[in-house]
Amino acid sequence: MRILIVEDEPKTGEYLRQGLTEAGFVTDLVRDGVEGLQSALAEIYDLIILDVMLPGMDGWSVLTQIRRAGKDLPVLFLTARDHVDDRVKGLELGADDYLVKPFAFSELLARVRTLLRRGVKASAAEFLRIADLELDLLRRRVTRAGRRIDLTAKEFALLELLLRRQDEVLSRSLIASQVWDMNFDSDTNVIEVAVRRLRAKMDDDFDPKLIRTVRGMGYVLEIPH
Fold this sequence. Notes:
Number of helices: 9
Number of domains: 2
């Protein structure tokens, strides 16, 4: 599942990004309210973690604009503002939860998972499918033709990205930034190795073959014509 983090404090932002990535989520991190709003409206996310005190546009305004645009995804306020009035304001504006800094990451992760379970519609958002392959986002399970496939956290994140953007050729640089949160280095074969391992698990023993290499461009998940 994909999470947008809007946090201007560098250490906190990186701490959240790293922890959620290691927990198996695809994360995007932005550092001001204007960029956060633009990302929330332009991209598809399953949850937003939003600070209140942000440069450019505060979190209250960001959330207001998100709700006015008809986006009903879960939003978790994460802020040092601990007054009751602030919590009430956040919830009244449409936030789904409110966590005060400093916080324990284990609690934040538990709240994130609870919001994701509560906030998505089972048939539409808990599962991603193509052909006889099914990815269960909440239980972190993958099956093909009814057979369970065990994936590492990175393999799961890679497959989720391919499924969310099926029929679209994804470049190595895009995959590197989305799954490994790194700039693409042409001397690194980490992506090729990961795709090869994913293929071995979900394609080699099945038909049709769903992952296709587009020479010189990247990879695409599709049903062969």
